[in-house]
Amino acid sequence: MTCELGASIDWDSILSVFQGDPELIARVSLCHLEREISRGDELDLLCITCDLQIITALSQQENIRFAYMRQGVITIAAEILALVVDRKWEEDMQMFARRSIADAAALLRSRIEEMDALPFLSQAIERGLVASLLKCEPLLTSVGQPVALQEMLLLLGEILPGYSVYRSVLHQLTLAVDSAMAQGLDAKLSKSGGFCVGWKRLKDTVNERRRLVKRDASSGHVQTCQNDMCSKTSHIGRFKRCAGCLHAYYCSWKCQRYDWQNGKHKQFCTRIHQRFVRTHGHMSPVHSKDLKFLDQIILNELKKHRARLGSHPVKLTLVELSFLIGGQVDIFFDTRGAKANPFGTKCKCELYSNARWKHMAEVVREGKKPMVLVRAFIPGGMSRKIVLQAIPLALVVEGRQDQRRNRPVVEKYQFNLIFTCCGSERSYQPVTATSRGFNDVKVPNMD
């Protein structure tokens, strides 16, 4: 807006009043915005639009961005979106309504993707994000708003379907999709528009994955000891979790200590802790229910290609799955199993998991039963997840499990590991043995 008026803002002078306190800056600007949206029928869209653009500009500074997230900017942005799309605006106010929608959607999308996305996405869904996205089409498409449309379609057709791989998010999305259909919001969409395409992707993805929820209740999720020299695998609940990173599991204190001193966990755990400190605690581990559900999601995708996998029953088949782009799952095969690292790494954070991927391939080749070695990329904002699994080919092709016990028997060469990215490429800082304080870090406890 300042560019349109040919004006500029002296941010340094303005922020000097707050003495560089990011919490105070966030609190003052959000309080002003909350006061505007609490006015009920007397909403001042011009003020709301200005407040949103100021928050967006200030969010470019990382410390202020984290302060906004801690103080509930996602909830406020979702509420603004719902308030604006639920009303009919006079023609002279529609421009400001469209700007408010565009700024709120851009704030939601960018901030969710730049943080540990799960808790913040849940906040937005609870505030009626799905219904708001479906209601905004007439206001945006009537005059053409390419930037606003792009943000809304990204949320509706890519981000929301992508995070349905988490059972906790899928539950929220199931309720939101059912509610939208009960209200007939989908029937009002233009059949040839992008909103209809995005809605269909979201609805189809949710409907497909909601059928998998009942299966994971009886599935035998397994965990693998992170120590390369052990790699023992057992049912969930048998191993202890590293209290430092909240992601690595070990069968014993001895294995954790060995991996800390001789393996790669010291670097990984320290970088995770650095991100935890930098984001003031915005880091959440994956819940056990989500872990079980991820097993079913991955197995379901593999079964779609059972004919291809079954036609070449080699000892080891390498498969990479990417769930990062909406409900569309990208799958790549290396059926010959000749390359230990056929797909390369996506960012520096994956070097640790990639080393384990190579080691798993070597170990699995020693077995007699045909196995499928899977590397799956799971969305998570700045902390996307990487799941490594070694699954018996018979389980994929024939759906066969040994049910002689209460839970499926764990195969000797069956693995299941999960890693998290430590942050964005932009914020990456290498951790070395000579980094300040690195040698003084003690082995974390296990919980």
UniProtKB/TrEMBL annotation:
Keywords: Metal-binding, Zinc, Zinc-finger. Residues 227-269 form the MYND-type domain. InterPro entries: Znf_MYND. GO terms for molecular function: zinc ion binding. Gene3D superfamilies: 6.10.140.2220. Pfam families: zf-MYND. It comes from the Eukaryota. This is MYND-type domain-containing protein. It comes from Boletus edulis BED1. The lineage of its organism: Eukaryota, Fungi, Dikarya, Basidiomycota, Agaricomycotina.
